[in-house]
Prior knowledge:
This protein is an alpha/beta fold.
Amino acid sequence: MDAGKRVTLRDIAAQLGVSAMTVSAALRNTKGVSAGMRKRVREVADRLGYRPDPMVSALTAYRLRVRPKLRHNTLAFVTDWPTREDWKSLSADFPRYYAGARERAEELGYAINHFWVRGEARDAAHASKVLAARGVEGVLVSPMPEPEADLGLDWKRFAGVALGVTMEKSGLPYVSHNQFSGMRLLCRELRKLGYRRIGFAIQSWVVARTGHRWLAAYLAEEVAQAGDNDRVPPFLEGWETAGMGPLLAWLERERPEVVISVTPALIEDLERAGWRVPEDLGFASPCTDSLESRVAGIFQHPEEIGAAAAEFLHALLMQGRRGKPHPRPMMLLDGSWHPGATVRRVR
C-alpha cells in the first residue's frame, strides 16, 4: 500500500472481505458485531496503521447536529434516596443537573425517565432486570445520599455515568464540578479582595461528600499563600444539632476576616449573633446558586454539568462501552467566581 495514502475503512474491509459498514461498526463496538470480528478488524486496522480522519469525524458530528433527531433509546436517571423526591432536597444543584441532562439527552434523540430504585425494585439485581426489560442501555446516576456509594447494578448491561463524586469509589465514570480547583479559585479571589485570615467552616459530612477536595484545596492554599500568623484552623463541626455556640467560639478565638461555608442561612444566624456581613465578616460559598446571587462564591454551572453527563453517556453508548471502563474516564468542569454582596474589598 502507498505509504503516503491514508488508510480507509474500505482498505480494511478489502483485507477482510467484509463491507466498510461492518468495519465501521466493529471499530465502534456496535452491538451485533461478534467479538471475533471486532478483534480481526482491530488487528488489521493496527497492521495497516489506520487512524480516523478528523475532518470526516467533524463532518459526521455536524450532520448529526443539523439532522432532525429521532428518538432511538431511553435513558434512565437513577436515584436511590429514601423517598422518590429526596434527591432534590440536599442541594438546589441536583434538580438542575437533571434539567441540563434531560435537555441535552432530548437534543441527542433520547427519552430520559426517572427510576427510583427503592420504589421500583426489590434490590439492585431486580433493578437491573427492570431497567433492561424497559430497554434501557444508558444510565445516569444522581448524587447519592452517602459518599463512596455503589448502586450495585449489573453494569455489564449498561453504560453508566454518575453525576458528582459520591459514586467515585464504585469505579463508574462521572461528571462533576472541579471541586479542588473551585476552592482554590475561591481562596485566590478572596485574597485579591485583601482578605488574609480566611476561615473554613463546612461540616465534616459535607466535606466527605466532596471526597475531601474542598478541605484539601483550602489547606493547600493556606500553606502556599497564608503567612504563619494568618492561618486559620478549619471548623468542621455540625452546628445544626450542636447549636451555634462552638462556631461562635471559633469565630471569637480565630478572628477570620471571611468565612467559607455552604449554608447561606448561616448568614442570618451570624447577623443575629452580632456579626454584620460583610462589614464585620465576609461570607463566601464554594457552591453559590447563581451568578446573580447575593452570596459571593463559586457558581458550578449545574445545568452544564448535567448536559456534559448526557453527552458523555451518549459517547459511551456510541462506542459500545458498557460496565466500568478501566482506566475510568471522568470529566471535571470548572466553576466561575461570582463577587456577590457578602464580601467587600478590605485592603
